[in-house]
Amino acid sequence: MSADPDILTPPEGVPLRFPVAGFGVHVGAQIADIAISGLAAAAAILLLVVTGAVAPIWLAGIGAALFLIVRVPYYVLSELAWNGQTLGKKMMKIKVVAHDGGPLTPHALVLRNLMKEAEVFLPATLVLSLDAERLAPSLIALAWTTGAVAIVLSNRRRRRLGDLMAGTCVVHLPEPVLPSDLSSTAPATATASGADAFGFMTRHLEHYGAYELQTLERVLRVEEQAPATAAEIDRRRQVRAAIVERIRARIDYAEATPPSAHLSFLRAFYTAQRAHLEQRRILGEARADKFHRETRR
User: 36, 149, 180, 257: which sits with the fewest CB atoms below 10 Å from its CB?
Assistant: First the structure.
């Protein structure tokens, strides 16, 4: 783990900058999500009232149960469907990521959201339902809430207990802009011949966006620097191999790529992908990242 809380290092070894979402941003997203799930529960209650399905005396209890039934699946399914984002997080431009830079797993998302019930909603419900005559329960609820807030404020990545258990944290979305054209610094003949040699087609270039291009650029800029040790040479070789295989699998590139051609493959793919994104931007379709298809739906 990097000493800088804004840096995540995925298994490929390329550091990525994700600014940590502050406590205020967390609260803003939480309020928005509570409002959204609360409106859904209120709509269900209104339907029950209009249809006369329940007696008015039961509305308070049924309303609390409906809020729970709507809320838990809302958080879990939203973050599963939108890669670590709920509607509230989308509004605040933040997302959940794995703390170690690895893939975000369904287990982690389910765990962090179930823990949210114990950390946030249960003590909040107790605080709202207690009165001055019941001092002990009120103090317990207050201490509970204070402890949950203290955990968030006491660590650099503003992780609550559910994040600590699930191995996740919440970060700001990076600004997806096309980087300066790295291919322009390479000899024109080498760039052109490299791109032609691998024969990337339009269908190969429909999968990634500006954010992934930024990440690939960082890898290639590191490759421009002379390695200091034999261990560094070996590490770079492993990183290149991992990235090439991930790209080939993602874009369904069938041609085998020997280790000696990995760097050429990455440079050629960078050149072709950048040209494709520039063309799409000219046509009015800017692509932020590899999830652009889900975003458009």
Answer: 180
